[in-house]
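step 4 of 6: structure.
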Amino acid sequence: MKKKPQFWGIFADPSEFSRYVLPALPFVVLVAAYLAAAFFRNQANPDDKLLPTISKMADAVYRLACVPDERTGGYLLWTDTWASLKRIGLGISLSAVTGLFLGLNIGMLPGFRCLSLNFITFISNIPVLSTLPILFIVFGIDETAKVMLIFLGTFTTITRDINLTVQAVPQEQVIKALTLGASQRGVMYRIILPQIMPRLIENIRLSLGPAWLFLLAAEMIASTDGLGYRIFLVRRYLSMDIIIPYVLWITFIAYAVDFALRKWVVFQYPWYNVQKQ
Amino acid sequence: MNGAPRKSAAEYLVFIQDAYKKYGPRPVLDNIDAAVGAGEFCTVVGPSGCGKSTLLRMILGQEQPDSGKLLIDGQEIFLPSPERGIVYQKYSLFPHLTNLENVAAGLGLPLYPLAAALRRGEIRDKALHMLETMKLAEHAHKYPHEISGGQQQRIAIAQALIKSPKILLMDEPFSALDPFSREYIQTVILNLWESYNMTVFLVTHDLNEAVYLGTRVLVLSQYYTDDRPQESPRGSQIVADYALETILSTKIKGTAEFGQMVEQIRHDGFDPKYLKRIDEFNLAHEDSFKTFSENDAGILKNKKSS
């Protein structure tokens, strides 16, 4: 019998070994390329700013994470992380809750849909970043404006997708619940809502990308702490030894949250992924 | 039997008179007259797209006739309610609940969430008992997607029966099942029909099933003629209505009468070349009737004396 190809073609069947090695390969290549480039640049000029060596970055991370800041007395990496997580967490929670209830009501109630779906679709097309000055004028340059930017940037998408998800629930389920004695509100909140929860979490996962974007934008323009603020601040001194670890740190947090939410859906809603097939 | 119904409308469990239904410009049901008494096991058959499911959904309250009368227990209905249970071909079960929770839904949903939570134990016990009588207790804690299609439909029946509905409506509930599960579940439903003392409406495209299960069969068909131009679009009518004998034995399927009845129904409703005139339908059941109101003048211009 002829064996299936390891790598090439649409019938490729990577072996157990390659399933571990192949995903790691792009990372290894990227890191190696960076290390080589940094090594040669630093050999030519030990004060090179552009591609700091690993040891320079480790130094910078140590200073930010383990040595109290002279001016504020805090550990900058952690205070920045906490400030940013608070903003993005608050913003995305707000839009998740709003999107869930708005989407559920639009999807279930034809009258309410008639009233509001067009409006939501319209405002979802506003380029939210262009409203940032308005937000700063209205809410001041404190936390509210930043949270509002994340909220406004993500809740419309969630609302619209939840609406579509609700409308895709078979009508039979609604009728069935009524024949079992549920009230109309009972159908909405006790039968349909639990069914769309995993979809909401998927929506949060997808919205976290834009949410980070809005967070960093807001922090870069008007803030006194936060991950985006720090990156933008040290840019003035070409401190790549801080910028690169910060970017990696943000990426890591975003990936970890995404991973956690994905696992949460698998454990909490065992019926969900089967249902989609 | 042409003419007025045998008893008054309120004496029937389900009473439909001159009911019309259109989907957009397309007529689905024309001038439906039907009276069904309590305790009947009424099967509804007809060619694909003839509106069998529409008729069922109207009795359920999921849809309303465009015109005409539809009374359940002498009352007009507007929405589905616990008095009429439904089992669909699929999507009957809530995918996010375990089988036990699905069956318990009918006990918990009518209560406020807090009250349902307080009586959780009692509700669980009742639902579990239901599953035991249906011989499904071993699947109680699985999700619907983890059991076979036949088991899913039995759970769906249990889910509907826990409300002890007056009327159980079933829309091709066994169509997706393999022959063995189907035969088993047919006997299950016959036994339940007896012990629960309900009225059953079952839509099916399987004539053998219709004749085997029913005490009465309604044949719905768009193949008939009347005084409208031949090419004008017609909604389906009840073209035949027979009383059937039901014996709880599969042996009846082998008898000559059984085969003749199936053939007769096929001839009445399923042959596009055989068109009966609207006043000559085989409405043999004693509760069957057909009235022609003023609206129907176009359908029947010269009424024959019967």
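step 5 of 6: annotate
 - Chain A has a mean pLDDT of 93.
 - Chain A has eleven helices and no strands.
step 6 of 6: archive
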